[in-house]
Specification:
Number of strands: 3
Number of domains: 1
Radius of gyration: 15 Å
Structural class: alpha+beta
Helix content: 40-55%
Distance between the termini: 35 Å
Order of helices and strands: HEEHEH
Largest sheet: 3 strands, antiparallel
Number of helices: 3
Strand content: 15-25%
Strand order of the largest sheet: 1-2-3
Amino acid sequence: MKDLQSIQMQETAEMVGWLRQFEIDQKFMNNHPVIISQDHNKLYITFSSYHDDYLCYLKDENADITKDTYLCLQTYGPFLTFSKKHMTDFAVLVVGMTLAANAA
């Protein structure tokens, strides 16, 4: 569990940096940017969600702290790289996300 917490802290920092640097197309994945990460033989897929108020907060545009000024992460995994079933499930998810990206 400690490893997962460390991974989630790193992913949160990466997502904040990404959101501050780039204007993200909110149509893709219904405003849920995705991070795919690896820790040794474990893969994780993390979806994030946020509100426009959160982006204002990150840009320090005098945003009030409300229930919408938070970044939420939902992590799925681990998908074990030595497990055929896990890798099949992981591949299905990644292909689905790729098809969604191409359709957006």
